[in-house]
Structures are given as structure tokens and as C-alpha cells.
Write a structure and sequence with these properties.
The structure is a single chain. With 499 residues, this protein is of the alpha+beta class. The protein has 18 helices and 10 strands. Strands 3-4-6-7-8 form a 5-stranded antiparallel sheet. The chain has a 3-stranded antiparallel sheet with strand order 1-2-5. Strand 9 and strand 10 form a beta hairpin. Helix 1 runs parallel beside helix 14. The longest helix has 39 residues. It starts with a strand and ends with a helix. Keywords: Aminopeptidase, Hydrolase, Protease. This is Aminopeptidase.
Length: 499
């Protein structure tokens, strides 16, 4: 994930309106509901008999894949029951396990969990992605940080020492943020206070540039910019064509005009469609903490990712607030000193100046308190509106999500082979992506390797001598998979209901 700032060439010499674009890699998740996918593909089949066989095959594929994962998911849920923050402690006590045995079980749980996250196409956010996401502001305008003293630093550190992952963030020993899917969030409002802050921030940046202090404050940003060109060099044309471009509309880049300052404006921010956070709280002296928190959020604006952070500190004054305090204090002090140095001391003038300075400081403080109240309300609102689930509910959702994705991959790839005949892995990958684009208007990076692996395991797809994939006929495919347990149960229920 990278940010790019583009400028319209015609306005370069005049007032420029910056266009900030975030570039993201296309994800492997298929964003189509399974029933819609199956019915759309079935309607593309000409003969009704083949259509019926295809629908039967889709059901048998789902039943079989669900059975494959059943045991693994049961193990995952059983392990989590021991580390549920609410009831896990009691179950661990009943098991009478040694600390070493518990350590092994919790590492087994994390192994299963990370496998499910990978199968469900979730990715661990890297430092670069978080830097890009938090490089701007959206609705949350206060500096939020994590109280690391309240987080355990052993559990995840031990896991990553045994299971290597590339591009792990600096905080991976304390908590992990998984993300999947990209969306857009828009908000329209007057944003009067935010516009005032934006004007002050621009004036402050102007002063820094004029005084030459900008270089001192931008060392870290320069170090980041040194890394970005290297990434640009590594990206080839083929990858760029597959990337997804999402535009940000921020107040910081708003063109200055009376119309913009006094009227409603619409800001826009890319969102992570799904975010899952995994962490453990730090143990107290009187009690060893074994609970593992798994929290699931939806539609989180990238610039407001702080919402999902665990064990957040209450924010303090922003740098801009401190600037307001310091500037007003210096101006007031200079005014008072100059009035004192006059031959005739005007106490009324000095009192008025001090009152003004104190009043401005009080206004700044109460504005901060108002922002803090807005922040607390936003956190509460996000926990109510944006948190989908936690703990066991999140795991159940993930397990079902894995099955749905696997079924859709298998059905799409089999349909292509059925309609197009033999295909190489590359051709099959391309044709599956084209089918999704043409029939559903969606783009994804189709996971063809996982799909053909499942098809070969089912026994309904093989390879010829030169490595091309081909499938058996629909009727033969249903015979190979055979009647599933679910079908037997459904027939039994129908038989009971008709007697």
C-alpha cells in the first residue's frame, strides 16, 4: 500500500488542488455472494439437464469442503474455549494443566487461528501500510496511542519466533492487526472547527518554512520518502495494472476559498472492509492472564485505524494545541512586559491583556475537552456500530468464511474448465478473473493454485502430459464425489414429512 500525490498539469502554475491516491494490491477474496454466483453460472448453461447436474455438483462440493474443515475447526474452537477471556480461566483450572502444557496449547491455538486467517484471505498489516493509513486525518483528530504496559509481550513474540512472517510491524509482539477488503467512506458536513485547525496548521507550516525549522521537524518523513522510491522501482507494469487505486479527499488538501470554508464539503477516505485484532492483556502480579482477545471490526477508515487499537490511552493535547498555548503565552508575556516598561504603568491595559491571554488558553483547553468528548463518543459508537463480534463469534464467522471462499474458487474454476476445455494454470487464472469481471463487475486476484488443488483432491480435475488442466463431465463429477451425508439427511427428512 502506497500513497501517490497527483496534480493536474493545467493548474500547476496556479492554485493547486492535490489529488491523493492510495495504491493497493488486489486481494484474493471473491466479493460475490455464493447463491448469486451459483445461479448466475447455472443460467449460463444451455441445457436444463446439465444445469441441474451443475447445481447438484455445487451442493456436493460445498458439503465435501465443509466436511474437510470440520475437524480442524472443532480443534480451533476447543482450544479457544480454554483461552476465552470470560470462561477460559475456569476451564483451564478444571483441566489441571501445567504452565508448560498451557504454553503448548496456546501456541497450537494461534497456529490454527493464523491458518484460518490466511485461508480467509486476511493479511497482517505492515508498518508501511499503517504509516500510509495514518498519514492523514479523517474524523478522528486526536493523537491516540496504546498503553503498552497493559499488553502482554510474550505470547505473540513466541509465536513469531517459531513461525516466520515477512514485513511484521514493530508492535507484532504485543498485538496483531489483520485486514481484508477495501471500501469507501464519505462524510459531508461544515467541519468548522476542523477547518480552523487546518488553517492554523497551514500557517504553522508556513512559519516553519520561512524560519528554516521545517527541516528539523521533517527528518523522519524524509527517511520514509527515501524508502518509497525503492518500492516504486520494484513495481513493474503488470503489477501496476492489477493494482487498485483509491482516492482520498482530505481537509488538509482542500483548496482555500470562502466558498469552501463557509459551505459544506465532502471528505472521502478508503476503508478496510474487515479488521481483526488479536492480543492478550498483561498479567497482574496476583493473577497470570491467559485470555486471548479476538475482536472483529468492519468498515474502518484507514486514517482512523486508531479506533481498533487495544488498551488505548486517553489522548493528550495535540501539538497544535501546545502551539496555541505557547504562542498565546509568549504574546501575552511580551505585551505585559512592554506595558510594565512604560513610564506610566496602565494596570487596566495589563489586566485586559492577561485576561485575554488566560481566556484564550481556557478556550483552547475547553476545545480540547470537547474534542476528547467527541473522541470518547466515536470510540463508543464504533464499538457499537463497527464491531461485528469478538471471541467465539468471530472464529465461527471466520470458519464459515473460509468454506464460502473455497467453494466459490472451486465452482468458478470448474465452470471455466467445463466451458472452455483444457487450460494451463495461467490461462485458467486469467479466465476466472475475466469471468468474475464480465459477469459480476468485480475484480480480484483469483487464487488459482488453491482452487485446482481442491479440484484435484475432489478427483474431478486432472492434468495431461503437458500440464494442462481438464475436468470430467458433470454427471461423472457427481458420481466421483458421491452422495453426501447432508443429502442422505435431507432425503430422510423429506421421507418423514411425507408419511
Amino acid at each position: 500500500m502506497q500513497t501517490e500525490t497527483q496534480t493536474d498539469p493545467e493548474t500547476k502554475m496556479a492554485k493547486t488542488k492535490k489529488k491523493e491516491v492510495i495504491r493497493l494490491e488486489r486481494e484474493s477474496v471473491i466479493p460475490i455472494l455464493k447463491p448469486k454466483l451459483i445461479m448466475t453460472l447455472a443460467n449460463l448453461i444451455e441445457h436444463s439437464s446439465d444445469r441441474a447436474e451443475f447445481l447438484k455438483l455445487c451442493k456436493r462440493v460445498e458439503y465435501t469442503i465443509r466436511a474437510w474443515y470440520l475437524l480442524q475447526f472443532e480443534d480451533l474452537m476447543q482450544l479457544y474455549s480454554l483461552f476465552d477471556p470470560v470462561t477460559g480461566a475456569q476451564k483451564l483450572k478444571q483441566q489441571d494443566l501445567s504452565p508448560e502444557e498451557i504454553d503448548i496449547l496456546e501456541q497450537n491455538f494461534l497456529t490454527y487461528l493464523f491458518q484460518v486467517m490466511d485461508k480467509s484471505n486476511f493479511k497482517i498489516t505492515s508498518d508501511d501500510e499503517i504509516d500510509v493509513a495514518l498519514s492523514g486525518q479523517y474524523l478522528l483528530n486526536l493523537p491516540i496511542s496504546v498503553d503498552e504496559s497493559k499488553l502482554d509481550k510474550k505470547l505473540l513474540k513466541r509465536y513469531f519466533e517459531e513461525h516466520h512472517h515477512d514485513n511484521l510491524p514493530d508492535f507484532a509482539d504485543k498485538y496483531v492487526i489483520f485486514r481484508r477488503g477495501i471500501g469507501i467512506d464519505q462524510t459531508t458536513d461544515y467541519f468548522f472547527m476542523e477547518k480552523v485547525d487546518m488553517l492554523i496548521a497551514r500557517f504553522w507550516s508556513f512559519l516553519l518554512r520561512r524560519t528554516g525549522l521545517q527541516k528539523l521537524f521533517s527528518r523522519r518523513s524524509r527517511r520514509q520518502h527515501k524508502r518509497e522510491p525503492k518500492k516504486e522501482d520494484e513495481i513493474n507494469d503488470d503489477v501496476e495494472q492489477d493494482d487498485l487505486y483509491v482516492e482520498r479527499h482530505r481537509l488538509e488538501n482542500m483548496e482555500l476559498s470562502f466558498r469552501n470554508l463557509l459551505s459544506k464539503v465532502t471528505i472521502q477516505e478508503p476503508t478496510f472492509d474487515r479488521i481483526i485484532v488479536v492480543y492478550r492483556r498483561a498479567s497482574r502480579k496476583s493473577n497470570t492472564e491467559r485470555g486471548i482477545y479476538v475482536k472483529h471490526f468492519r468498515n474502518i477508515p484507514m486514517a482512523d485505524m486508531e479506533i481498533v487499537l487495544p488498551e488505548k490511552k486517553n489522548p493528550g493535547l495535540t501539538p497544535l494545541d501546545w502551539v496555541k498555548f505557547l504562542v498565546s503565552a509568549v504574546v501575552g508575556l511580551v505585551a505585559v512586559i512592554s506595558s510594565v516598561q512604560m513610564h506610566e504603568i496602565d494596570l487596566w491595559v495589563a489586566g485586559a491583556i492577561l485576561s485575554t491571554v488566560i481566556g484564550y488558553c481556557a478556550k483552547t483547553y475547553f476545545t480540547f475537552q470537547q474534542n476528547l468528548a467527541v473522541y470518547q463518543n466515536m470510540i463508543t459508537q464504533s464499538m457499537y456500530d463497527k464491531q461485528l463480534d469478538s471471541g467465539r463469534g468471530t472464529l465461527l464467522h471466520l470458519c464459515d468464511d473460509v468454506i464460502q471462499q473455497e467453494v466459490k474458487e472451486v465452482i468458478i474454476s470448474f465452470f471455466i474448465l467445463m466451458e472452455q476445455g483444457k487450460a494451463t494454470r495461467q490461462d485458467l487464472d486469467l479466465q476466472c478473473e475475466e469471468l468474475i469481471k464480465e459477469e459480476f463487475g468485480e475484480s480480484c486476484n483469483f487464487d488459482v493454485d488453491d482452487a485446482v488443488q481442491k479440484l484435484e483432491k475432489l478427483g474431478i480435475v486432472s492434468r495431461d502430459t503437458i500440464g494442462r488442466y481438464y475436468c470430467v463431465g458433470l454427471k461423472r463429477a457427481n458420481e466421483i464425489i458421491g452422495t453426501t451425508t447432508e443429502e442422505v439427511v435431507l432425503k430422510a427428512k423429506q421421507g418423514v414429512s411425507t408419511t
